[in-house]
Each structure stands twice: as C-alpha cells, then as structure tokens.
From TrEMBL:
Domain of life: Bacteria
Domain annotation DNA mismatch repair protein S5: ranges: 209-327
Protein name (record): DNA mismatch repair protein MutL
Species classification: Bacteria, Pseudomonadati, Bacteroidota, Bacteroidia, Bacteroidales
Limits of the MutL C-terminal dimerisation domain: 446-588
Keywords: DNA damage, DNA repair, Endonuclease, Hydrolase, Nuclease
One of the Pfam families matching this protein, by short name: HATPase_c_3
Segments crossing the lipid bilayer: none
InterPro entries membership: DNA_mismatch_repair_CS, DNA_mismatch_repair_MutL, DNA_mismatch_S5_2-like, HATPase_C_sf, MutL/Mlh/PMS, MutL/Mlh/Pms-like, MutL_C, MutL_C_dimsub
SMART domains: DNA_mis_repair, MutL_C
PANTHER family in alphabetical order: DNA MISMATCH REPAIR PROTEIN MLH, PMS, MUTL, DNA MISMATCH REPAIR PROTEIN MLH1
A molecular-function term among this protein's GO annotations: endonuclease activity
Sequence similarity: Belongs to the DNA mismatch repair MutL/HexB family.
Keyword Hydrolase: yes
Length: 629
C-alpha cells in the first residue's frame, strides 16, 4: 500500500496558519502598527480603502530595514525580537512570534518600501500569496511603507464571509484606538477613502484619551494611582454618575499592551458597588506596569489574553486603588456629625405668648362662591353648571370599555388581536401627567397600586397583577413603533439646540440610523468632526436627556448589529420608550392607573415587553380557591 501522509506546500501551510493571526482587515492594521511601534516610529499614518478590503497602508518613520531583513521579515518564525525561549519571559516589544508578516503575505498582495536611517537607498519588494514577485532598490523615505492590497484575494471563502464595510471599518477603528491609547508619545493619523477620521498629535495620556473620545470626557475622569512592589497601576476611571448601560469605555493595558481580563473587571465593578444602578457600567482606562517575567502573553496569537503570576494580590491592589479614587472625589457619601457653628433654629411653642405680637385676623366671606355670579349686560360668556359637567366626567368612566373577553384572549395568547376596540389610537402621553390628553377610556374596575410598582385589578377569570413600568414601556413602544413605520412622528423644535459628540466608531453606524431617527421625531444636523446638533426632539420627550438617549441608541446598534430598517426602527422605538417609561416606585393616581390599564389592554402584545420580560401575571379563581383548601 502506498504512503498517504505528505507535507503540505508552504503556500497552503501559510494560508492555514494565517487564519489564526489574520482574521479580518483590522488584524492587518493591528499587526502592522504594532511592528511600526516596535521599530521606534514616532509618526504613523494609516490609509484605508474600502474598509481594508482593497488597501491597508501603514507609513512609519521607524528605523527601517536592509534588503536582507526586508526579505527575511516575510519568512515564518523570522523575528528580531527574541532569540531564545527565555526571552519570552522578558518581552518589551508588541510582537515576538514572527508570524504576522508571513500570514499577511500568504493571503494578500503586499508591497514593502523601506530604508534604514542614514542609508542612501532603500528596498522595494512585492510578495503575492507568499511568492516573491519583485525586489529592487528604491528611493523611498526613511522608515517603512507597507501596502497590503486585495486581502484574501486567493482565499475567496474567507473574503466572502467578511462583514459590511461599516462593520469592518468599525473594527479597524477599535484596533487603532487600543494602540493609540497606550502610545500617547506617538503621533498617529487614520484616513478612510481619503477622508481624515482621526489625527492624534503627540500628547500626554489624559490628553490622548480626550483626543480620541472627545473633550466632554475630560470632566468625567478621575485619576487612579497605586504603587507597590508587585505592580504599578495608573490611569483613569469614570465618575459614578457617568455610568451607562451600553457603550462604556473599558480598557485594560499591561506593559503597553491591550488585554481583556474579566477577573480584573470584576474588581473595578466591586469598587463601584452601591454607587451605580444595577446593570450600568462605568468607564475606565487602567494601565498596569510590572515585571514581564511575572506574566505570560504567549497564550493566543492575538495576545489579548494574559496570565498573571500574582493575580490575586493585583486584584486587591486594583480594588483598593479604585475605591480610594472614588472616595477622594466624594463619590462615596460620608456622614458629618460636626454641629459646631450650626444655626440655632427656634422651636414653635403654641403655649408661649409674645407680648405685643398677635396673629393678624382675616375677614372671610363665608357665602362667597366664585362659580356663581350675577350676569351683567356686558357679560356675553355662557354660564356653565359645573356640577353637571363633573357628573358627565364620572359617567364617561364606564362608557366605552375594552371587551373583557377580548382582553382575556390577549392575555392567553401572544397573537395580536386585530379587532379595533376604540376609534382613535393612544397618542404619546406626557410622562409627567400620564395619558391626560387621550381618547382611551379608563377601566371601570377596582384597581390599586401595590408597593408603588404593581397594579392589581380583577378580570372575569381572576386577578391580574401588572408591572406598571413594563406596561408603560410596552404602550410607548407600540406608539413609537407605529409612528416610525408610518413616518408620521411629530417633532418639537428646541429653542436652544443641544450638541451630541460621537466617536469615530459610533459615527460609522450613524448613516444606518439617521433616517429612522428622523421618522421618530429627531431633527439632527451634521456639524462635522463627529458632532451633531439636536434641533428637534420627538413630541412628548420633554425632560428626557436626548443626548444620552442618542448615545445609548448608537451603542445599542453597535452591540446588536441591527440589520434591516424594521429592526433598526424597533430598536429606536424601544430605546425611546425605555427613556420615557414611568420609573419603578412612582405613585399613580386612580385616574392614571385606569388609563394605564386601558391603554395596555389595547396593545397588540400585553404579555411581554420587546426584550421578553413579563408584563402581566394572572392569578385565576381556581388558584385562589386552592390556596384556601
């Protein structure tokens, strides 16, 4: 029998190995920029075409390479950064595996122009699919210019599964920001399709963060510092009041390298315990500096997973450092028992009479009634019988009510009931006074509020318990959803327009959202540089922080990766409803409870909120009887 095991050609082996290192255009940017930093570059320029699918070009002013080094750099496991195994435990460079350039050259068309400092001429070479095509002397500037063209041109299956240009470019920005945040001494710029996206001059650490994410972040950061024999920690954490559910900026860096570390993240979150609402996340930029021999970065080719020898002690130091920072900023409340110098407030004593001072006497006309007056010849206004008018309001409470059988069918089925119960839909209500301007008729049923959170009422089959916050959220969601789909949302112009700033990563997804935001009632104007003016807001959204709302909508769109206009519209409607829904703990009047229930019973889905949480729970008559057996 003939032998069946054979060695793969280098080109195929390189393509297989490249799959771990080069996953998308952002991986190319990461590897090339890190190489430029290792080469001592102080200026790095990144040019992107078609989200990196057509071109990724990185220009640096580093030390450059000789002709021999330029050729060797594309060989697998060829590196200048380590020479023996022990060097893995004393790394001071970003790269060390010698795989990045070989992996890039295996799946793209690469051109390198490089010249060493002081050399008269440089070298230009071309490599397509791991094959050297051309090499010659070149009059190029000092440093290196890497041009990676047509990524995955020889691996069509990989190219086919790349995401949209917006998604891929957002990943490039993410990698760019991670490198920029930890190298503030390096001037960096990013261009996409000849448009400048970011231009970051050499600066300090705090200024670099502000340059990347906007000047509004400067007032929201608190400095963190901790020194010990194990680790040096510095950086910034966000003030507790700036925490948010989505889009928090959370970064860990160790020895100049970005890392992901859920265990250290837990330490930061524990420091914020009882300071931020459940489910919200603070921003932080934490930088660790420690002996390279105590960490292991050789776990995964992406080098974002790092093991620490002294993980538990560092966890404790990080927790203490963040807590100390929050305490110094008065984020943690303190009790002040100092009463020295307090104002003496006199106590009223009704039995004590002050001579010469008597309370003034007021003359009251007991027979005066402001609603009854004599008609004069000049008075042409009609007179009203206010008692009769009030009685007519009471009569309306039981006029046109939702059919109880239809309501119970809705409760037992998630299928929307298409039967119209009233002629007019519920208009978006002002949150301050619930449903005051609406044609929905209140429910003429006994109803009371339990623990300022639940509404309890009776139906034909038993007792219904309703979460008031979720009920109002569902009502508003269906209203805004309908307005967006019909493109008929009312907008209220702002007297003083607000300004909202988006990061470059957030700005890449805005074109997908602007149309539906306009349909929902937002009037936005692009001011350039990631800034937008909020000229108008949806009617009924007064009192809502629309800047925060828009940032949350964009962050949610990035997290969920919304596809299709209908999905984007529903996401916007849900975000708007969440921002305006009545909070848990709000005391409702009997009229507000009646209108809330009536509006809920008219919803197409009264059982679950858009995110799948239960709104209404039934306690049937049979279940009640069984409890008393």
């Amino acid at each position: 029998m003939s032998d069946i095991i054979h060695l793969l050609p280098d080109s195929i082996a390189n393509q297989i190995a490249a799959g771990e290192v080069i996953q998308r255009p952002a991986s190319v940017v990461k590897e090339l920029v890190e190489n430029a930093i290792d080469a001592g570059a102080t200026q790095i320029q990144i040019l992107i075409k078609d989200a990196g699918k057509t071109l990724v070009q990185v220009i640096d002013n580093g030390k450059g390479m000789s002709e021999t080094d330029a050729r060797m750099a594309f060989e697998r496991h060829a590196t200048s950064k380590i020479s023996k195994a022990d060097d893995l435990f004393s790394l001071h460079t970003m790269g060390f595996r010698g795989e990045a350039l070989a992996s890039i050259a295996a799946v793209a068309q690469v051109e390198l122009r490089t010249r060493q400092k002081g050399a008269d001429l440089g070298t230009r070479l071309e490599i397509f699919g791991s094959q050297l095509q051309h090499i010659e002397e070149d009059a190029c500037p000092e440093g290196s210019i890497f041009s990676v063209k047509n990524l995955f041109y020889n691996v069509p299956a990989r190219r086919k599964f790349l995401k949209t240009n917006d998604t891929e470019f957002r990943n490039i920005i993410t990698e760019f920001e991670r490198i920029a945040l930890v190298n503030p001494s390096v001037s960096m710029s990013l261009y996409h399709n000849d448009t400048e996206i970011l231009n970051l001059p050499e600066s300090g650490l705090r200024q670099r963060i502000v340059n990347v994410y906007g000047k509004n972040l400067n007032q929201k950061l608190l400095s963190v510092e901790a020194e010990s024999s194990l680790v040096s920690i510095n950086g910034f954490v966000g003030k507790p009041e700036t925490a948010k559910k989505r889009g928090a900026l959370q970064y860990f860096f160790v020895n100049g390298r970005f890392m992901k570390h859920p265990y250290f993240h837990k330490a930061v979150m524990q420091a914020y315990d009882q300071l931020i609402p459940a489910g919200e996340m603070p921003s932080y930029f934490i930088y660790f500096n420690l002996d390279p021999a105590t960490i292991d970065v050789n776990i995964h080719p992406t080098k974002t997973e790092i093991k620490f020898e002294n993980e538990q002690p560092i966890w404790q130091i990080l927790l203490a450092a963040v807590r100390e920072t929050l305490a110094k900023s008065s984020a943690i409340p303190t009790i002040d028992f100092d009463v020295e110098g307090a104002i003496d407030i006199p106590v009223y004593n009704p039995e004590k009479k002050i001579s010469g001072n008597e309370s003034p006497k007021v003359q009251i006309h007991s027979e005066y009634n402001p609603f009854k007056r004599e008609a004069t010849p000049s008075d042409t206004r009609p007179s009203f019988d206010w008692t009769e008018l009030y009685q007519s309001f009471e009569a309306d409470r039981s006029a046109v009510l939702p059919d109880e059988e239809i309501v119970e069918k809705k409760i037992g089925s998630a299928i929307p009931i298409e039967k119209e119960i009233i002629e007019k839909p519920v208009q978006p209500a002002e949150e301050k006074v619930l449903f005051t301007n609406t044609s929905v008729q209140p429910v003429a049923k006994p109803c009371f509020q339990y623990k300022n959170r639940y509404l309890v009422t009776t139906l034909k089959s038993g007792m219904a318990i309703i979460d008031q916050h979720r009920a109002h959220l569902q009502i508003l969601f269906e209203q805004y959803q309908k307005s967006i789909r019909q493109q008929k949302a009312a907008s209220q112009q702002m007297l003083f327009p607000a300004i909202v700033d988006f990061t470059p990563a957030e700005e890449t997804i805005l074109p997908l959202l602007l149309e539906d935001l306009s349909y929902s009632g937002f009037d936005l104007s692009n001011l350039g540089g990631g800034s937008y003016s909020i000229n108008g807001i949806p009617d009924g959204m007064e009192g809502v922080d629309c800047v925060t709302l828009l940032k949350d909508i964009v962050a949610k769109a990035i997290d969920t990766g919304c596809k299709g206009n209908e999905e984007i519209g529903d996401m916007i409607a849900f975000s708007m409803a969440s921002a305006q829904a009545i909070p848990v703990g709000k005391v409702l009047s009997s009229e507000e409870m009646d209108h809330l229930l009536a509006s809920l019973f008219l919803c197409s889905n009264m059982n679950l909120t858009p995110d799948g949480k239960t709104i209404l729970s039934m306690l049937t008559d049979d279940e009640l009887e069984n409890r008393f057996h």
